[in-house]
């Protein structure tokens, strides 16, 4: 065992560790693929779609019992396996700010976005992660607990490419284990791009499915030629319309942060948050909760924390406004 992980040898060990019977373990892992066509209360996930520019994104959120199983796997196994240092998302101590910092004040910044990142990662790759850390005999069932197959009934309005991926076992967008597993699966890709960047005095970081490369003396066309081939070789594809080369005279933006001088939230976004708070002071919070967030105050404070991560002054301004809001009205 390479890391300080639970000692699990067989299915019985896994079942006891998760406070399940072996039969329940097989049910939650969907070992017999029973749930490929079932719907409603038999499903372990809740499904909904979030509109995007071209089609819709499928969200697959585990129901409470499976979510607790996945959280246990995350806390006691996955959180103890370090991803590559380039991974700056979904890792303790990282953030959009730490993702953006290496690219601050660079003459050229290249941004790429992986397409259908979670649904591109199948059971075999997840199983390989568990096997690599000493769980060879139980890697399959651990992988099955962390992946799913989307029932056909939920694939309306999903483009054909994504629907094909979703019909195979994949990492569900909405499961607590998916970001950590994606980071570990992409470790090889990160290592190769990082190595290329180091050899050429470039800077590379990744936040989820967002990749950024920058440098002081950088030929973006040559860099993209290499990086796109590494990405394809590692089994991923990029959104061609989201690949962008940003030079110093343009606004260089990564994960919502402008990095031309130092990472900070775009002025327009800051102004929008400030305007929302001013309106909430005048009308009460609920009138401004147009997206029906169940905990609007927590949502707004989360946005303030995001802004404040790169600007203490802006954070103080927004917090002072938030204190004047009647959150119950």
Can you give me a brief rundown of this structure?
This protein is α+β, with helices and mostly antiparallel strands and 329 residues long.
How would the blueprint of this fold be written?
Layout: H1 11-17, H2 22-29, E1 45-51, E2 56-62, H3 64-76, H4 96-100, E3 108-113, H5 123-132, H6 139-145, H7 160-166, H8 178-185, H9 187-199, E4 203-207, E5 210-215, H10 220-233, E6 244-247, E7 253-254, E8 257-258, E9 264-265, H11 267-283, H12 296-308, H13 312-322
Antiparallel strand pairs: 1-2, 3-5, 3-6, 4-5, 7-8, 8-9
Report, as a whole number of angstroms, the end-to-end distance.
54 Å
Approximate shape: globular
Measured on Cα atoms, how large is the radius of gyration?
A: 22 Å
- Record the strand order, biggest sheet: 4-5-3-6
Number of DSSP-assigned strands: 9
Relative strand content: 5-15%
Mean pLDDT: 93
What's the quaternary structure here?
Answer: single chain
Secondary structural class: alpha+beta
Helical fraction equals 40-55%
Listing every helix as H and every strand as E from the N terminus to the C terminus, the arrangement reads: HHEEHHEHHHHHEEHEEEEHHH
